[in-house]
């Protein structure tokens, strides 16, 4: 169903932009910039995989970094889910192949997403001070409110208990009651002051790598804007997609990017803008997703890749 929805959105986007003009725009890509696009994005993925390894070590889960990276990459296969919640598949892999309880590793996904939201907001604040656009400050305010609320749920038991009561009113979600209860100590550990600082410090360079990929993706399609503007447009659109809670921000992120490019970029050729947006999403969303699918299939087929490990529960 998700795949069909994705196809409908992109096909509609393509035809609205005029498929002929869009094809010509894509054919005019400066292919010399392709390594400059995918190399930083690959660095972003590997750097965030290292962060996952750091969080595992904090929880006394001592596995080789190679296995941590493979498990992290497998989680990318379900990035296009509401709030990237599908990345909980990492916990299922660790339960099946290493024996660690899901309640112990599942909180890492929530902490990772919180770190990425906080880090992207900090980047937006700095860029807003350099070259302000109105939409940045709007997203900063909304995003900061959500980040504070999420941190309260993560850090403080009273907030989490209130949230749990709301969640458990939905009968289908009651199966998660034990996991939520058992995750509280882990969440508190992962949200300690020094680990929050360390997590954000690790995340910021990764997001800068991603911003570099986005900048060169725009340049390759002929969208000649500054790094500061391209990064603000991308993160404003990305956060808009995240807070919409639509799977992968589908439609919301693309629409926000299109609106911002129309407003702040002098060339209003829809085919060029549409081509650039599709290319940016290909690089930042579908490339990691495809990589995750490949790795998850390998892990499923060759269980000893991450298994074969003495573990402690």
Task: Tell me about this structure.
With 313 residues, the chain is mostly helical. The chain has helices at residues 2-16, 19-27, 34-58, 65-75, 89-98, 102-130, 134-155, 157-167, 177-182, 184-190, 193-220, 227-244, 252-264, 270-301. The chain has one domain (28-305). The chain contains 14 helices and no strands.
Question: How are the secondary structure elements laid out?
Answer:
Layout (H helix, E strand, L loop, with lengths): L1 H15 L2 H9 L6 H25 L6 H11 L13 H10 L3 H29 L3 H22 L1 H11 L9 H6 L1 H7 L2 H28 L6 H18 L7 H13 L5 H32 L12
Residue share in β-strands: under 5%
Sequence stretches where pLDDT stays below 50 over 5 or more residues: 170-175
Average pLDDT reading: 81
Number of helices: 14
Helix content: over 70%
**How many structural units, i.e. domains?**
1
Report the major sheet.
none
Structural class: mainly alpha
Morphology call:
globular
For the secondary structure, the number of strands is 0
What is the succession of H and E elements?
HHHHHHHHHHHHHH
What Rg is obtained from the alpha carbons, in whole angstroms?
A: 20 Å
Distance between the termini: 36 Å
Fill in the keyword field for this structure.
313 residues; mainly alpha; 14 helices; 75% helix; globular
């Amino acid at each position: 169903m998700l795949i069909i929805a994705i196809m409908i959105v992109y096909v509609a986007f393509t035809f609205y932009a005029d498929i002929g003009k869009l094809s010509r725009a894509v054919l005019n890509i400066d292919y010399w910039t392709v390594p400059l696009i995918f190399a930083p994005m690959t660095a972003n993925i590997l750097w965030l995989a290292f962060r996952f390894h750091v969080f595992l070590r904090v929880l006394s889960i001592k596995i080789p970094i190679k296995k941590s990276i493979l498990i992290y990459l497998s989680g990318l296969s379900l990035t296009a889910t509401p709030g990237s919640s599908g990345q909980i598949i990492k916990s299922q892999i660790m339960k099946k192949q290493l024996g660690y309880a899901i309640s112990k590793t599942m909180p890492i996904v929530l902490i990772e997403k919180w770190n990425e939201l906080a880090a992207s907001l900090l980047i937006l604040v700095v860029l807003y001070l350099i070259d302000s656009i109105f939409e940045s400050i709007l997203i900063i305010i909304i995003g900061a409110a959500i980040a504070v609320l999420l941190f309260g749920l993560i850090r403080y038991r009273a907030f989490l208990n209130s949230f749990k009561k709301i969640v458990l009113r939905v009968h289908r979600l009651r199966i998660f009651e034990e996991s939520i209860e058992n995750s509280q100590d882990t969440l508190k550990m992962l949200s300690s002051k020094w680990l929050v600082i360390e997590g954000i410090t690790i995340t910021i360079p990764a997001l800068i790598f991603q911003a570099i990929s986005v900048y060169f993706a725009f340049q390759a399609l002929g969208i000649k804007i500054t790094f500061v503007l391209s990064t603000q447009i991308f993160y404003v659109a990305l956060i808009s997609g995240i807070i919409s809670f639509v799977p992968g921000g589908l439609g919301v992120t693309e629409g926000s990017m299109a609106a911002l490019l129309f407003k702040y970029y002098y060339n209003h050729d829809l085919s060029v803008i549409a081509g650039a947006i599709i290319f940016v999403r290909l690089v930042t969303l579908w490339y990691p997703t495809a990589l995750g699918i490949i790795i998850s299939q390998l892990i499923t087929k060759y269980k000893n890749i991450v298994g074969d490990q003495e573990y402690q529960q």
